[in-house]
Amino acid sequence: MNLLKKMLLGIVVCFALVGTAFAAGNDVTTVGMTATVDEFAEWGDVEGVYTIAADEWTNGVEGSTISAVGMNLTVTKELTLYANANVTLSQAGDATNNSGILTKGVGVDTLTTSYQIRGDVGTPDTAYKAADAVADPLGFFAAANTYTVTHTSGVGSYAINLMVQAESDDEAADDAGPYTAGLTITATW
Amino acid sequence: MDKGVLGIGSPAGRVGLGLFVVSLCLTAAGLGAEWTPAGYNLQIQTHFNHTVQQHAGSVTLTLEHTQGVTLTVAAAGAGKEVFTCQSPGSSDTLVTKYKLTGADLGAAADSQWVGSSDFISPSRSYPLPYTDGVSQVTLQAQGTSSGNRANDAGAYSASLVITAAW
Which residues pair with A119 in a beta bridge? Predict the structure, then answer.
């Protein structure tokens, strides 16, 4: 084999080796991804509507009903607020449902109704507040009667305990029958 | 015999030149595959503003390749396969799922959402046969907000590395 042939063979072998070196390999790409969660608050109930049933009232025995003058019944409704921002709660009587005052029929007779909020709020109530918007003494529906919920990172679920008290008249027997009322609690962030 | 400078005119030279050209072609073909561009971004456009929301986004990836390849997926770092909140003090996450789809994947394309941990499993791979030199696959990412609390607000990010091996 002359020198030229040897050189050509060398070149071929060289490139064949180079080709072999590229026979396997890989290439990578990086995909960066982003998503955004907005600030929001949402009541835990699907429709944001809670109902206090007649059998939830108690005066020590659940399902109690008013059967005397000057008798108090209470109920605690545990509401759940999902929030990822600091929230202010404000309350108003539902004008379509006796404005938050337990009433029989259409304004025929009423029970003295009062409320308080406890749970994961900045300053929980320690006593019932009347179902009115009076500024002094502070009514439950007063504009100044608000509650703060402070969001903690990673928590996002807060217990809001609405406590309701119904009190029968001290000096007369209230009409027999069901009494109803409604209110709205607004979470603002 | 005309040997010429490289002996191209000789039988040995012609054989050598032929092998040289073939070798060059093999070398070029051996380049295998290349993502173009080298990096991609995927954005879930719709913001999350309720519990139990599902939103998704997608990005189409282009691979130039000269032979069949196998695609595998890995997290770009520990836990980076999951959408994680980037707000200070938060490590909140969205439930994250993926799909790799596209006609070029054939039967290997995902038909269902795959959980993030399964998606980056080393045993999971996608054969991508050679067709006309350019293949496109679509990476889809889905986030789901929590059902029993509000996820922390802010930007969430995840990052995957997709490898084409031949």
Answer: A160
Q: Which of B135, B66, B117, B134 is nearest to B126 (CA)?
A: B135
Domain of B79, CATH number, reads 2.60.40.1090
- Please determine, for the modelled complex, whether the ipTM score is greater than 0.85: no
pLDDT of residue A96: 94
Print the domain residue range for B24. Answer: 1-30
What average pLDDT does the segment A161-168 reach? 98
d(CA B101, CA B96): 17
Domains and their CATH numbers in chain A = 41-188 (2.60.40)
- Choosing among A3, A7, A13, A29, which should be mutated to test the B contact, i.e. which has the most B CBs within 10 A? A29
Chain B contact present for A42, CB below 8 A: yes
- Shortest Cα distance, chain B CAs vs residue A31, angstroms: 5
Cα B110 → chain centroid: 14
How much is the pLDDT for A27?
96
Total of domains in chain B:
2
Transcribe A55-67 into DSSP letters: GG-BSSSBT----
Do B39 and B23 share a structural domain? no
pTM for this model (two decimals):
0.82
- Render pLDDT for A4-63 as a digit per residue (tens, 0 to 9): 565 555 555 444 444 444 578 999 999 999 999 999 999 998 678 899 999 999 998 888
Q: Which of B49, B63, B161 is nearest residue A38 as measured by Cβ atoms?
A: B49
Same domain, B146 and B116: yes
